[in-house]
Amino acid sequence: MEALLPKYSFNNILLARFQNPEATFIAPLKRWNELGRIVNDKAIFILTPVFKNIENTETGEVERKVVKYYRVPVYDYSSTKGKELPIERIRLKLEGESEEAIQIFNAAKLIAESNNCSVSVERVPGAANGYFFDNGLIQKIVIDRDLSINHRAKTIIV
User: How many other β-carbons are positioned within 10 Å of the β-carbon of residue 120?
Assistant: First the structure.
């Protein structure tokens, strides 16, 4: 999938999911058009850095630094229509309920909870298998209830 769609930073993924919790695959309008898809919904905005070469006055070395950010519109796959893409084929699901996976999940849950981070298994909207939430006061890990225990174990430790 990386060859089809651009990769975004964790912060930009959070920005996109904040604006559209159902977002799965995002790309700019130009990329969707290149893939034979037409955008038919409103944009999600992420940030792109602007770099500038700045000379360090003490050392004389030129350093590349971020000087500002621009808002950039991107669109979710669900906001497009057109040529079929192999998106659903790449979403790997682990099946089964091994004893090892149960032990891994329970151990990871104990570690999280001993660090004041709650763990719950509930419905997670969109294509995410789970997520971590931290607002400075509350920390929690949420795992999608529709996943097998093998996939829950993978998700909680990733």
Answer: 11
**What's the pLDDT at 91?**
55
In angstroms and rounded to an integer, the radius of gyration of the C-alpha atoms of the chain is 20
Taking alpha carbons only, the member of 141, 91, 148, 151 closest to residue 120 is: 141
Tokens coding 150: 């093998």
What's 90's DSSP letter?
G
Q: For residue 74, is pLDDT > 70?
A: yes
CA–CA distance, 79 with 75 (Å, rounded to integer): 6
d(CA 65, CA 45): 22
As a whole number of angstroms, the distance between CA 109 and CA 135 comes to 19
pLDDT (tens digit per residue) in 84-112: 877 655 555 778 888 999 999 999 999 99
Query: Which of 96, 152, 111 shows the shortest CA–CA distance to 129?
Result: 152
